[in-house]
Amino acid sequence: SFLTWSSPSKLKSDTKQFDPFQEWTDGYVRYIYSEDKNAQRHLSGWAMRNTNNHNCQILKKSCLGVVVCSRGCTLPDGSRLQLRPAICDKARQKQQKKLCPSCNASLELLPCRGHSGYPVTNFWRVDGKAIFFQAKGVHDHPRPESKSETEARRSSVKRRVSSPPFTPKRRLIETQVDNIKTTPAVYRISFIEPNFPQHYPAFQSPEPYYNPHNAVGEAQPTMQKPANPRIYMGRPGYEFQGYLTSPTYPMTSDLCDPRSIMPNSDVSWSLCRVPPVLGSSSSSTPLSAPLTSTCSSFDPQSKSPAGWKELLKSSAPYGDNHHYYSTEYPCRYPGNAPSSPAALQTIITTTTKLPSYQSCPKPSAGLQSYQPCAPPKLPGLPSCSSLLDDPSSSYSTEVKVTEESGRSHQVSVISA
DNA sequence: CCATGCGGGCCCA
DNA sequence: TGGGCCCGCATGG
């Protein structure tokens, strides 16, 4: 159904109607970007790898998770190592053979299982000047360092290694220390908030230099005041009906008209994979709330989302090696969720092979009112101030995405 | 080196 | 079929 999202040309003729690029999307959200370089490059703070969906119209990517120290050691600054998994399979294998720069323990790749037990997936579709983005799943692991940070670190390390004067021994040590020092705060887990560093920018990026990188995220909408985040925070299985039942032309029509979708966006949080304890609470709020209000509710400031995140945070301590796999971490265990993984599966299908995504029928409906479901309020949840607390919200709104300039791709959007 | 895309192909439900 | 995923190939920084 992601496919159906289109006709930005008409609906969003006004550039201002597009969403600001979101580097750290999380949850079931949708955005429509303009000609943003980052969007054109299908950039994401998360380490996303291309996955073949046999649909040239839609570019699909799945999350690789995060690489952490198998011992979960604490870095000198109190944070934890959170490396960005190499996208290239081969490079990733090499990466995993390396040792923790801090304690020399082996590194461990925490796979992402935020989408019904499968990695969170991102879908991209290009339609004219509009770039449609859709994410499915809630990352159940800490944020890795951003791409820009990784690149910065690499170049810096390279610089030092290649730089001359040091005895072999000394250089080795230096390099290691350097790694730590240069480790973007971002990919370190806060000592204080080991669980989800990403929610605590302040901790993540003690060093000003890195802050810019972390600035962009969903949590930031608050600060950025994005026009209106197309977040349809649904949980798995709560995709809009419209998305689910895609018409003949998945990419184009059903989602074309947001309005048409909204009515069906009767997503219920009951489907959310919320810990049993909290799960019940979600059932009460349908996502069908008015688009406007609903959407806004998703704002970082909104309490609902926060509550959800808070939940995750509290339930997923990142202390020992396999904490993420513990039952404490609902996200990783579909089993904990009320519904089965299958039930939670998203409906967006991108596997349909299409001749050329350019040829895909374009959506005709307007997107103006397009509003993904709003996150329902989580009645049972304690106050959800997480968003407010979310460090990300404190990040500078400035998106530091300038480094990427990319080539534009044509992505067909995702259909849910 | 490695990030990215693409697309063939396999497996499974 | 759809979804997930592995693999090789190609391109580009």
TrEMBL record:
Keywords: Developmental protein, DNA-binding, Nucleus, Transcription, Transcription regulation. GO terms for biological process: gliogenesis. Residues 137-154 have a biased composition (Basic and acidic residues). Pfam families: GCM. GO terms for molecular function: DNA-binding transcription activator activity, RNA polymerase II-specific; RNA polymerase II cis-regulatory region sequence-specific DNA binding. Residues 137-168, 280-301, 388-416 are annotated as: Disordered. InterPro entries: GCM, GCM_dom_sf, GCM_large, GCM_small, Tscrpt_reg_GCM. Its main location: nucleus. SUPFAM superfamilies: GCM domain. One of its GO terms (cellular component) is nucleus. Residues 280-297 have a biased composition (Low complexity). Residues 2-156 form the GCM domain. The keyword Manganese does not apply. It is found in: Nucleus. This is GCM domain-containing protein. It comes from Gasterosteus aculeatus aculeatus.
